[in-house]
Design a protein that fits this description.
four-stranded antiparallel β-sheet, 2 domains, single chain, 63% helix, Growth Hormone, Chain: A, 12 helices
Length: 339
């Protein structure tokens, strides 16, 4: 694989807007994950799973030594069993995805991992430990792969690398914290106590996450918007200052509640694309008049939002425009903040 990477010649296509500033790019990446219900749900689930399941790997050397005739070879045998279980599970993942939803796979994988951890706490020899590690490895890869695929599908091309880096940070951070905690629990108590607590709490916390960190995200089309998406004007581009955009809608007051729901989705979309502020204003003197206000960091960042638009954003725009009752399109005005 290293040879292939060295031989690969990627054709670089320069962005006409130039490279993003590091801090700004990080901010936008964090904003997208924060506004994405699916990514929040994925990060909560993967953090809980790795925080608790890492107890088994963190304490595995001590468990191997405690088995009958346990030594360094026993430790490597248990690791190999876990890897073999993961390989076997990968072969069945396509069928499992057809039979179960993502959350069903995550919950079942967590339960199997917890059972494997509990069995390892009392395993007297390798004849019990090896099958437990086989099932543990299968559960491990099932949960991790299911959530990784869900994260990949939720991320548009322009933010996928940033989103997956946060996914990896969640895994590594949860693993580090979990290893430290379960090691301390084993130090204060016993290996068995640490593994039992990790097994039981892992399942309980995953149930709570599935119950309260609900994934309301739909399978939106996150492919880049191709046709029908307007572009921002390129004339009179300001060199500095924040950009404030207002979009005026005329809405039938009888449909105001439905319009508000669509505009809340619009808020999440605007912020996930990089806007630093968003408000919906209602004209007191004209009940039918609503003004959407968006604030961008700069003119360049304003233009970037158009490049980040997806097919789902285009569909959402059509839903917004369906509420507009005027024969003329909504009035769009752009301002630059003077300092």
């Amino acid at each position: 694989s290293g040879f292939i990477v060295l031989r690969w010649r990627r054709e670089h296509t320069p962005n006409p807007l130039g490279r993003e500033k590091l801090i700004s790019a990080m901010r936008v990446g964090v904003q997208f994950v924060r506004q994405s219900q699916r990514m929040r749900a994925v990060l909560a689930r993967i953090s809980i799973f790795f925080f608790h399941s890492t107890a088994l790997l963190a304490l595995l050397p001590l468990l191997a030594r405690g088995l009958t005739g346990g030594d360094a070879g026993t430790f490597t045998l248990l690791l190999a069993a876990m890897g073999a279980g993961a390989i076997v599970a990968v072969l069945f993942l396509p069928r499992l995805r057809q039979a179960y939803s993502r959350d069903q796979l995550v919950l079942r994988g967590t339960v199997v991992q917890s059972i494997s951890t509990a069995v390892m706490a009392v395993a007297p020899n390798v004849y019990v430990a090896v099958p437990a590690m086989l099932f543990g490895g299968a559960a491990w890869i099932t949960v991790a792969n299911s959530l990784a695929v869900s994260a990949q599908l939720a991320l548009p091309d322009w933010v996928r690398a940033r989103g997956m880096s946060m996914y990896q940070m969640a895994i590594m951070g949860a693993t580090a914290l979990g290893a430290a905690l379960w090691g301390q629990v084993a130090t204060v108590g016993t290996l068995q106590t640490s593994l039992y607590v990790a097994a039981v709490s892992g399942t309980l916390f995953m149930l709570l996450a599935l119950r309260y960190v609900v994934d309301h995200g739909t399978d939106d089309d996150v492919s880049p918007a191709q046709a029908g998406w307007s572009t921002a004007p390129a004339h009179a581009a300001p060199s500095s200052g924040r950009i404030v955009i207002t979009i005026e809608y005329l809405i039938d007051p009888a449909r105001a509640a439905a319009f508000h729901l669509v505009m809340q989705q619009t808020r999440r979309t605007r912020l996930s694309e990089g806007a630093i502020g968003w408000e919906l204003l209602h004209d007191i003197t004209q009940p039918a008049r609503y003004v959407e206000q968006i604030v961008d960091e700069s003119w360049t960042e304003h233009l970037r939002r158009f490049n980040r638009a997806t097919a789902a954003d285009l569909a959402l725009r059509e839903r917004r425009l369906a509420f507009h009752i005027s024969e003329e399109p909504p009035v769009v005005t752009r301002y630059v903040v003077q300092r």
